[in-house]
Amino acid sequence: MPFWPNIYAGKTLITHGETGVSKTDRETVEQVCAWYGHRADALIEILHDVQRAHACVSDEAARTIAASLNISRAEIQGVRSFYADFSTAPRAERRIRLCRAEACQAVGADQLAAELDRAGTPHEAVYCLGNCALGPAALIGERLVGRATPDRLAAASAGSGDDD
Ligand code: FES
C-alpha cells in the first residue's frame, strides 16, 4: 500500500516556491522514505508517492530522497527522467497524454498530435494506454479518452463528454 493516501487524504499540499519543496514538504518526503524503510529498491514507489503528493519530484525532493536512501542523486535522476510519469515541476492537472504507439498511430494519433500542435494545445507522448481498440487514445488527468479528437479532448478537459 502506498504511503500517500494515509497522510494526504483531504489535504492540499502543493505549496511549491521557486526554490523547491518547503520544510514541511521535505519532512513529508522523509516520512515517505521512512514508510518504505529507507530501501533503495523502493525508489520507484517513493517517487510515485512524492509525485502524487506534490505533483512533481523536485530537485530538492530528489536530494532529500538521495540522502534518505543513501544513493546518489544521479540514480534518482536516471529513474526520474526515464519515466514520463515523473516531472521536476508541478504539471497542469489536466495535461493531455496522447498515445503514440503503433495501434494508435494506425488510426490517426500522429495527425491528432499535429492538430493539437497547430491549435497550441500542449500534450505529451505516451506509449500504449491499454486502450488500443479505441484509438487514438489519450489520458487527461486520470480520465481515459478513446477515439480521441480535438473536440473530444476539449470536452474531456472541461469535464464533460463520454468516456471510452
Ligand atoms: S497503442 Fe494506443 S492505447 Fe495501445
Notes on the structure:
It contains eight helices and four strands, in the order H-H-H-H-H-E-H-H-E-E-E-H. The protein is elongated and about 45 Å long. A four-stranded mixed β-sheet has the order 2-1-3-4, covered by helices on one side. Helices cover 45% and strands 9% of the residues. The chain binds FE2/S2 (inorganic) cluster. Residues 99, 101, 103-104, 128-132, 135, 137 line the site of FE2/S2 (inorganic) cluster.
Q: How many β strands by DSSP?
A: 4
Given the helix and strand composition, which structural class is it? Answer: alpha+beta
- Which strand order spans the largest sheet, edge to edge or round the barrel? 2-1-3-4
Strand coverage percent:
5-15%
Number of helices: 8
Average pLDDT level: 83
Q: What are the secondary-structure elements, in order, as H or E?
A: HHHHHEHHEEEH
Radius of gyration: 18 Å
State the distance separating the first and last CA atoms.
29 Å
Largest sheet: 4 strands, mixed
Assembly level = single chain
| Broad shape | elongated
The molecules bound to the chains, other than polymers, are: FE2/S2 (inorganic) cluster
